[in-house]
Amino acid sequence: MNESVIRSGPIVSKNIGKIIKLLCTECRDQRGKLRETDHKIVFSHEKRWDLYFEKMDSVDFDGRDAFQIVECMGCGASSFRHESYFSEDRYLDENTGESDNGIKSKLYPSRSSEFIAHKNFQHLSPMLRDIYREVIDSYNGRSYMLCAVGLRALVEGICSWGEGRWKSRRPEGGEEECRQMTTF
Asked: Which of 82, 84, 112, 150 is geometrically suited to a Cys-Cys bond with 135, CB 3.0 to 4.6 A?
């Protein structure tokens, strides 16, 4: 049985001050979609590690982790970024020539160009506004089942809340107004 040793240590970061393109949590285009903007790496803590087999006198696996704080150069919003490299994640497809350098990155809070921004519905009750925000957050968090349940609760809440309001001031046409309110 081979003895193995994991060696690791901090790396002096050369990435501080580097400008990278990322989706910003605050900057949006005309349709309300997240926009890719320049971000500056303001802090980076990096560690390199390798798995070394002493009897074989070789490094079999190696990797690197960088934990970074990035700041949008447009609006100043800060985010956290984890960039990692693992030697076994690299590949080269000899048939197509496609390759992957093994570097993965994840942003916190997570984001996508398909994220939906919250809209401000002042005419809804506070409870329905809270349900609406949770529906949008669950969609953006890719919790689609929770989003579907929330949508149903939101539609039922809007229609039952609307019926009570409209019956007192306008007995007919409340259903149509409810339909208009539920189109986002």
From this structure: 150
Strand, coil or helix: 113: coil
Residue that has been written with the tokens 């079999």 in this structure? 60
- Cα-based angle 64, 68, 69 (whole degrees, multiple of 5): 180
Residues 107 and 53: beta-carbon distance below 8 Å: no
Q: How far apart are CA 92 and CA 119, in angstroms?
A: 45
Over residues 74-112, the pLDDT tens digits come to 999 999 999 998 887 776 667 776 767 778 889 988 887
Extended strands (E) in the chain: 4-11, 19-28, 34-53, 58-72, 78-86, 91-92, 99-100, 103-108
